[in-house]
Amino acid sequence: MIPDLAISSCWNSSHHEDGYAMMTELAELGFNSVELGHGTRYSLWPGILQAHQEKIVRIVSLHNFCPLPLGFTRPSPNCYEFSDPRPQQRARALKHSLETIDHAAAFGARSVVLHLGSTGQRPASRPLEQLYHRGRFLSRSYVKTKLHSVIAHEAWLKNHWPRIEDSLLELLAKAASLNIQLGLECREAIEEVPLDSAWLEILTKLPPPAGYWHDFGHAARKDALGYIDHEQHLSELAPRLIGCHLHDMIAPDRDHQPLGTGGIPFAKLWPLLKKAPSPPVYVLELSPRVTKDAVRESLLWWKQNGPDLY
């Protein structure tokens, strides 16, 4: 049996002024479940509440920060970071994250998806992608840039992880009290936390309900750049898996594409999901530029090609 596929409102939240219309559109496309994305504005909230009360669709997860903090009108999941050296900014990240957990509990959702922060080092992903596009993958300058970014990230994480962990422990205590799982999401940018080789150590140290949230497109981008082996990465972390973002990727950097239109070897990766301790949440996370027809085709692709695991 193919699991239920939710859809993230990141696909259509920017197209709507009314949250009820936003949720209704997703239901009309054939989805029974929704993740409220990090671009959910306060102005959409009354309509979302109405749609929830009328059971138009089921809300299964929220992507931090949700709703957007006041003053932000576009998707801004990193507007505040747990890694920020400024205590006031970390306090804001914590405040809005606690509010997101409260909203998740009120909706009866299972999970909240979190970004953990960034190192503040010079961006490495974009320069490497540019070298890739110019046919200089694994050139001397490519390898030098990659190696420097890894060394800098390792040093930063060793010295600054405690400030992130302090916030996470408070969030985890809150989430546990409300029976909400916190999905720590793998990111596409090299300078975002954590370094992929540190995932197992971090998850081992953190108490439940911390879990791993696998983003197939982000992992595929890092695989394309030679940072990780996608299959090995997912295999190692699947025992802590609680959810996934599904989208396809055209190497090296065009992610959030319709399913089946890129190069991710989904059929090869599906069996690894059997290692998850319980059935994960599956969320289709598409670019707002994807057409409505392509959204329907992604749902059909999932029904025909998704993981038959349980």
Tell the overall outline: globular
Strand and helix order:
EHEHEHEHHEHEHHEEEHEH
Mean of all residue-level pLDDT scores: 96
Number of domains: 1
What summary fits the major beta sheet? 8 strands, parallel, barrel
- Main sheet: strand order: 1-2-3-4-5-6-7-10
Uncertain segments: none
CATH superfamily: Divalent-metal-dependent TIM barrel enzymes
Strand content bin = 5-15%
How many helical stretches?
10
CATH topology: TIM Barrel
Classification by helices and strands: alpha/beta
Specify the CATH class: Alpha Beta
Distance between the termini: 6 Å
Total beta strand runs: 10
Oligomer description: single chain
Estimate percent helicity: 40-55%
How big is the Rg? Answer: 19 Å
Report on this structure.
- This protein has 310 residues and is of the alpha/beta class.
- The chain has one domain: Alpha-Beta Barrel (TIM Barrel).
- Helices cover 42% and strands 15% of the residues.
- It is built from 10 helices and 10 strands.
- An 8-stranded parallel β-barrel has the order 1-2-3-4-5-6-7-10, surrounded by 4 helices. A two-stranded antiparallel ribbon has the order 8-9.
- Helix 3 links the parallel strand 3 and strand 4.
- It is globular.
- The protein starts with 5 loop residues before the first strand and ends in a 5-residue tail after the last helix.
